[in-house]
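Lab notebook, design round three. We kept the backbone fixed and only want residue identities now. Task for the bench partner: fill in a sequence for the structure below.
Input structure tokens:
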């Protein structure tokens, strides 16, 4: 099995590491990527091939695992290389995007003549102790993703065509990442009102399970918040004119603030979260 993964971020490199450790040949592209991406790719056993034609020609499938805003641009970029492969290489969009977005990606890949799979990844990156996320796949070519199961991945087919797997991913993330955003908003309100310690005590008394979840999750948000901005925007797009869409527009703005403070190493700006959700 030969798999090209773009890009070697946290999830992409985790998937790549599991594949390479179990005998697959894993390649990636580092075009436009920095030193951290190159180091992650190296640790994961991924070989960098920065010529798109060679990258696609040497693969059985391409897994697109990117921040949501980059999904369509990558499809356009790789379309000529996919066309040159004569429809042999499977293209799987594994990004957290709305069905509207994944259908736009699918149209680009269809014009290139390549088989396409809509994939929603639920869960975190694979870990060495055996944990792996679930890959929900939909579309006519969804079964072509099943060979990844031979490398320890949990592949689940979703009926409904292209867009179904992305709809599942959007619906799931609206609760998990949406709830983290609500927790952040609650912490901000408590800080403004100077009642953080009382809120913390009340959470521990009346909502111990939800509070424990937030204590685990919120501190992990900081380095990932920049990616979650686009994901919240995609959920809002998915919901369309439903009033709930505005919640996720607000969640996107919340994560944008967190991402900015994290990138600027603004510990003071994140202190209200650290204090409320300390363990």
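Proposed sequence:
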């Amino acid at each position: 099995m030969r798999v090209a993964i773009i890009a070697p971020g946290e999830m992409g490199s985790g998937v790549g590491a599991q594949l390479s450790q179990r005998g697959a040949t894993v390649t990636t592209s580092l075009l436009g990527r920095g030193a951290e991406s190159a180091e992650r790719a190296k640790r994961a056993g991924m070989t960098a091939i920065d010529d798109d034609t060679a990258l696609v020609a040497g693969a059985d499938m391409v897994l697109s695992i990117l921040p949501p805003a980059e999904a369509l641009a990558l499809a356009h970029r790789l379309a000529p290389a996919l066309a040159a492969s004569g429809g042999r290489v499977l293209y799987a969009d594994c990004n957290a995007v709305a069905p509207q977005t994944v259908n736009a990606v699918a149209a680009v890949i269809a014009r290139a003549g390549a088989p396409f799979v809509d994939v929603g990844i639920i869960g975190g990156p694979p870990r060495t102790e055996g944990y792996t996320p679930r890959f929900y796949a939909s579309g006519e070519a969804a079964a072509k993703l099943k060979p990844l199961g031979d490398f320890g991945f949990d592949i689940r087919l979703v009926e409904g065509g292209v867009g179904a797997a992305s709809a599942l991913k959007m619906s799931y993330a609206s609760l998990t990442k949406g709830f983290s955003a609500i927790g952040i908003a609650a912490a901000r309100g408590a800080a403004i009102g100077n009642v953080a310690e009382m809120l913390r005590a009340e959470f521990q008394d009346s909502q111990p399970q939800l509070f424990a979840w937030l204590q685990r999750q919120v501190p992990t948000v900081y380095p990932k918040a920049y990616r979650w901005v686009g994901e919240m925007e995609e959920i809002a797009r998915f919901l369309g004119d439903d009033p709930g869409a505005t919640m996720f527009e607000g969640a996107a703005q919340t994560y944008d603030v967190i991402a900015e403070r994290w990138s600027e190493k603004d510990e003071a700006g994140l202190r209200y979260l650290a204090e409320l959700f300390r363990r």
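Keep this in mind before ordering anything: The longest helix spans residues 164-193.
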